[in-house]
């Protein structure tokens, strides 16, 4: 079994047996580079799966049982690399940083909940807000807009904790919360904006999220004279907006350089059930909708 491992922008290929355990994998990783110590997580496959490399259950079982297969690329994070998620201002006192939320398929809702409340308590309620809105306006949220699902099906689907949120959810929640959300795609540095009633002037506040291709995290601003970081910012302060976008893009660039992004638009994906080959998340999603097949993996060079 050949496995590619990547950390902080550096990659190496490992050769392991099917009987190798998570502990064996971790030992080989550390032998590759002494600096690759205290590995926390490994992300791989499609849809992306995340495993904790400090979990005794993962370390004791064979890597095959964890879902890792030949040709996979493991995107690693360590305590050291995950800590490098902030950038100080010119005075070295105020800090703009990424606040990590769980990678559990609810990251968009977690990110917005954190921006609003500094905790994840509203995540499920935000899902319910989306479901309610979809059911209230079946004309706007038609089957075509909802990826082939009826409003009722979509409302039930989005309230499950294993479903991802995206553009539809952002649009609904920006209107519900009367705020704007900037999203920076770390793989391309593209900046997108979703606004309340599609007008920035009607939005009182905004927040910033960084998207890796498979995961959203919120950006926060910690001032040296404040106990709690700021996550929602006034729209009228254009100078602060320019500063926050600039610093957030630096964080996104650092993530990309470190190999912490996943280009779902260009990924080569194969269905493990029927063998169909696809390009990008859109084709994979369409295949899953038509066939019901969800066991897929990304094909690596």
From TrEMBL:
Its EC number is 3.4.19.12. Keywords: Cytoplasm, Hydrolase, Metal-binding, Protease, Thiol protease, Ubl conjugation pathway, Zinc, Zinc-finger. It is an enzyme of class 3 (hydrolase). Residues 96-222 form the OTU domain. This is Ubiquitin thioesterase OTU. The gene is TBLA0C00370. SUPFAM superfamilies: Cysteine proteinases. GO terms for biological process: endoplasmic reticulum unfolded protein response; ERAD pathway; protein deubiquitination; regulation of DNA-templated transcription. GO terms for molecular function: cysteine-type deubiquitinase activity. Its main location: cytoplasm.
């Amino acid at each position: 079994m050949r496995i590619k491992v990547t950390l902080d922008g550096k990659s190496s290929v490992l050769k392991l047996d099917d009987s190798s355990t998570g502990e064996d994998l971790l030992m080989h990783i550390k032998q590759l580079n002494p600096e690759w110590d205290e590995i926390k997580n490994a992300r791989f496959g499609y849809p992306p799966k995340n495993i904790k490399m400090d979990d005794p259950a993962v370390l004791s079982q064979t890597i095959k049982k964890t879902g890792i297969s030949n040709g996979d690329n493991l995107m690693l994070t360590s305590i050291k690399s995950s800590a490098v998620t902030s950038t100080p201002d010119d005075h070295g006192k105020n800090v703009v940083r990424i606040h990590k939320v769980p990678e559990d398929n609810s990251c968009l809702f977690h990110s917005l909940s954190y921006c609003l409340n500094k905790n994840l308590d509203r995540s499920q309620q935000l899902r319910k807000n989306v479901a309610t809105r979809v059911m209230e306006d079946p004309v706007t949220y038609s089957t075509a807009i909802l990826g082939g699902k009826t409003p009722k099906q979509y409302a039930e689907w989005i309230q499950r904790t294993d479903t991802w949120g995206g553009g539809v959810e952002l649009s609904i929640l920006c209107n519900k919360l009367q705020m704007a959300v900037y999203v920076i795609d770390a793989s391309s540095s593209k900046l997108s904006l979703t606004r309340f009633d599609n007008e920035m002037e009607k939005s009182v506040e905004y927040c910033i999220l960084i998207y890796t291709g498979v995961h959203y995290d919120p950006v926060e601003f910690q001032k040296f004279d404040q106990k709690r970081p700021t996550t929602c910012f006034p729209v009228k302060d254009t100078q602060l907006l320019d500063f926050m976008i600039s610093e957030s893009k630096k964080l996104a660039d650092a993530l990309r350089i470190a190999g912490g992004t996943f280009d779902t638009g260009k990924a080569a994906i194969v269905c493990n059930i029927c063998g169909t080959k696809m390009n990008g998340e859109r084709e994979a999603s369409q295949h899953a909708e038509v066939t019901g097949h969800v066991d897929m993996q990304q094909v690596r060079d």
